[in-house]
Design goal:
The protein is an alpha/beta fold and 756 residues long. The protein has 4 domains: 140 residues, Immunoglobulin-like (Sandwich), CATH 2.60.40; 319 residues, 7-stranded beta/alpha barrel (Alpha-Beta Barrel), CATH 3.20.110; 114 residues, Sandwich (Immunoglobulin-like); 37 residues, no CATH class. Helices cover 32% and strands 26% of the residues. The protein has 20 helices and 30 strands. A 6-stranded mixed sheet has the order 26-24-28-29-22-30, with no helix packed on it. Strands 8, 11, 14, 19 and 20 form a 5-stranded parallel sheet that branches. A 4-stranded antiparallel sheet has the order 4-3-6-7. It is elongated and about 170 Å long. The termini are far apart.
Length: 756
């Protein structure tokens, strides 16, 4: 047991030792090979590094070149690229020792750089083809001190003694695509200053940044530009004042990318001059997600048409060139029947697919032309999978970049050698967002072609090329779509959220007097919610959708009815004031409808149009007619000018009607009659008193009594002395209401009472 336990810790070390033995003892890496596709008059230079991975010292070490056999086909190139360790007979013999590099002792764990140069004519290359080129380290170990191959690295050397008779027509797509950087928010100023999620785009546009390098490298390459118009719109917005959200999410700060944004747009305008530009739908919507998930949500597919129309306008406005908008590019060129249907529904009759999706089933011995007729007047432009994925790895390591470049050149030459009498159109569709190092490797590979076996062709011309009748034209079924790609699609819930936001925007738009301030930023935000770039950021995608909906709902709620308390109406007719509040920076136009829940008891006047300036409130008065006493519920509801309900719910309040009844009127009339009779009686008494006074002559007690009577009469109310015809008559409930005005400000207060 003790012996067994003692061996357990040593097991990993023993395993590691076994990996670095024999021809795998020393790691050989090739970091540079120039020229990449040499001519006979050139001198080939190969540079790299050797590292001793063993625990012992390598003695008598030297680095030499080996030229292996020509590759028999495209599969042979793939097999050789993945083979490790030295294989006698397959790796060729070492060239003349004078072209080798002596290193001597190479202690354990140490590295040495090397550089080997040899005239190409000394390589003794024969027929045109792709040759295996190996760099090996030969030396001895303490246990095996004789010379032996302890490490080897292979690459490929395309050899063409002269231009091909029929060159392959090569179309290379150069994508300018980025992730979503702009929020739906804008400042409440006249310029509608945009607010960015972050300022990362400024780094990509700055010298040495990813997008700056894409433009700087692409301007001199035979490529077809493939551009997301959203990127152009975003950079154009950066040339002016813009704000950036703070990392904490609270507040914003000023963006500082104006200079690099202007420089990048200027450089791009010059770079695309005279080149073909293909514009993807605005924000590069995820076609596969739309086809597989979005179709289950009503209205989701309709966004694609608008995104396509906006693409052309955006590119032409900013770059001054008219783009092609009839190409669709699904993620990684993976297609199925549903994706093709969605892609072509918005007018894109050319679908960029990839050969690992639209696989050949006819047993062709060569790579066919890219264009395929797939029915319905639509064309699949099938990009070559090997060439398209050649630079997807970590190209920041020189050894990876060098091998990728040589492998790309080897595969492109092998396509031409497969059927030299057939001129074919080959399309390369690389990853959507290449890194800086990947873009540099791609550019180096294109420069290395030098026109020996290829000639450039635009994507539009490639789509028009005559299809190979033996090539596959059948689009795969939906079930064949790769599971790895399907797992990263936008979920159905995302499209439901998108449609909810669109519904909110559709309801908000009609009331606005300056629609562009809201419709444009939110319309673009909705398109950005469907972007392909969210595939690797599911959590951020959900957060973006939530922020857009929350912000839009908040704006919509700034136009509202001011809450109203219960009120009392006296008399048969009166007015009810209702206040509309607008806290937006622009004016709104709505219809305000007041409805009685019991129309037979309380009638309300017709709906009214309401115009409210930004930052103001407007009070609107409705006339009412009461037919009975008691409480009545009344609802107030805002509507858009086109008749759609606006707001989350109706505003209800109670109106207590206290109408004057006929009995009360009779009582009042009786009281008035009594007053009139009393006045008549007093008048008669005074007349009689005056008559008696005249008969008596006005002396003695009678005169005094008469005088006293006059004093009593003087104390009677003045109204009692009036003519009965001018007696006070109470106002009738049926009299017309006074003009209370329609522009009374402010809401009704608590216990509000509006009297006739």
């Amino acid at each position: 047991m003790l012996a067994g336990l003692a061996q357990i810790p040593a097991a990993p070390a023993a395993h590691a030792e076994s990996k670095a033995t024999g021809s795998r003892s020393v790691d050989v890496s090739i970091t540079s090979l120039t020229p990449t596709a040499p001519k006979k008059s050139d001198t080939l230079t190969v540079s790299g590094t050797v590292t001793n991975d063993t625990k012992g010292t390598v003695s008598g070490a030297r680095v030499g070149l080996r030229v292996g056999p020509t590759m028999s086909g495209r599969n042979a190139i793939d097999t050789t690229a993945h083979r490790t360790g030295y294989t006698e007979g397959l790796d060729g013999t070492e060239l003349d020792g004078k072209y080798a590099k002596k290193i001597g002792k190479l202690p354990a764990g140490t590295s040495r750089d090397f550089s080997l140069s040899i005239p190409v004519d000394q390589l003794h290359l024969g027929e045109n083809g792709v040759y295996q080129l190996g760099v090996s380290l030969t030396g001895g170990t303490s246990s095996q001190p004789w010379p032996q191959v302890l490490g080897i690295e292979r690459t490929f050397l395309p050899w063409q003694s002269g231009p091909s008779q029929k060159k392959s027509q090569l179309t290379y797509l150069w994508p300018l695509i980025s992730s979503t950087h702009v929020t739906a928010r804008t400042d409440n100023d006249e310029d509608r200053t945009p607010i960015f999620r972050d300022d990362r785009l400024a780094k990509e546009l700055a010298p040495g940044g990813r997008l700056q390098q894409m433009v700087a490298l692409g301007k001199n390459l035979p490529i077809t530009w493939v551009i997301d118009p959203d990127l152009l719109a975003t950079v154009d917005a950066m040339t002016k004042k813009y704000e950036v959200q703070n990392p904490s999410g609270n507040g914003t700060r000023a963006g500082h990318g104006q200079t690099v944004a202007k420089q990048w747009l200027d450089a791009l305008q010059k770079a695309v001059d005279g080149k073909q530009v293909v514009a993807l739908p605005f924000a590069d919507p995820d076609l596969a997600s739309l086809a597989h998930r979005g179709k289950n949500v009503s209205g989701a597919l309709s966004h694609l048409q608008g995104a396509t129309e906006l693409a052309s306008t955006t590119v032409e406005t900013i770059l001054g060139t008219r783009p092609r908008t009839d190409f669709a590019w699904p993620v990684e060129g993976a297609v199925d029947s549903s994706i093709v249907d969605v892609a072509t529904s918005a007018g894109a009759h050319n679908v960029i697919a990839r050969s690992d999706s639209l696989r050949e089933t006819g047993g062709l011995s060569y790579t066919p032309t890219a264009a395929r007729q797939i029915g319905g007047g639509n064309t699949a432009v099938v990009a070559d999978a090997r060439l398209s994925t050649a630079f997807t790895g970590d190209m920041s390591k020189a050894e990876n970049s060098t091998l990728a470049i040589q492998r790309f050149l080897a595969q492109s030459q092998m396509i031409n050698l497969q059927a030299p009498d057939k001129q074919r159109s080959i399309v390369v569709a690389p990853q959507r967002t290449p890194t800086t190092s990947q873009a540099q490797s791609m550019a180096a590979a294109l420069e290395g072609l030098s026109g020996q076996w290829t000639q450039p062709l635009s994507l539009g011309q490639a789509a028009k090329a005559k299809p190979d009748p033996s090539a596959t034209q059948r689009v795969p079924s939906t079930r064949s779509y790769p599971r790895s790609l399907r797992a990263r699609e936008l979920p159905t819930e995302a499209f439901s959220s998108i449609q909810e936001t669109q519904k909110t925007l559709d309801n908000f738009e009609p009331i606005l007097t300056a629609k562009y301030r809201v419709v444009t930023p939110f319309g673009n935000a909705i398109r950005r919610e469907m972007s392909t770039s969210w595939r690797s950021e599911a959590r951020n995608a959900a957060g973006f959708r939530h922020d857009v909906q929350t912000y839009l709902s908040g704006l919509r709620k700034k136009v509202r009815l001011v809450p109203k308390t219960d009120m009392t109406l006296s008399g048969r007719s009166a007015t009810i004031p209702v206040t509309v509040q607008n806290n937006l920076v622009q004016g709104v136009e709505l219809r305000l409808v007041l409805r009685s829940q019991q129309g037979n008891r309380l009638e309300v006047s017709a709906p009214q149009l309401v115009n409210v300036e930004g930052g103001h409130s407007q009070s609107v008065k409705f006339g009412t007619t009461a037919n009975a006493n008691g409480p009545v519920w009344v609802s107030a509801q805002l509507y858009t000018p086109d008749g759609q309900p606006y707001g989350d719910e109706k505003m209800l309040f109670e109106v207590n009607v206290t109408e004057i009844t006929s009995t009360v009127i009779l009582v009042i009339a009786g009281g008035v009659l009594l007053l009139v009779l009393a006045g008549v009686r007093i008048y008669i008494q005074r007349k009689r008193a005056a008559a008696r006074s005249g008969e008596d002559g006005g002396d003695g007690e009678d005169a005094e009594e008469a005088h006293g009577q006059d004093e009593d009469d003087s104390e009677a109310p003045e109204t009692d002395r009036c003519d009965p015809a001018h007696a006070l008559v109470p106002e009738q409930p049926s009299d017309p209401a006074p003009d209370t005005g329609s522009q009374s400000a402010g809401p009704s207060g608590s216990g509000e009472k509006v009297d006739h």
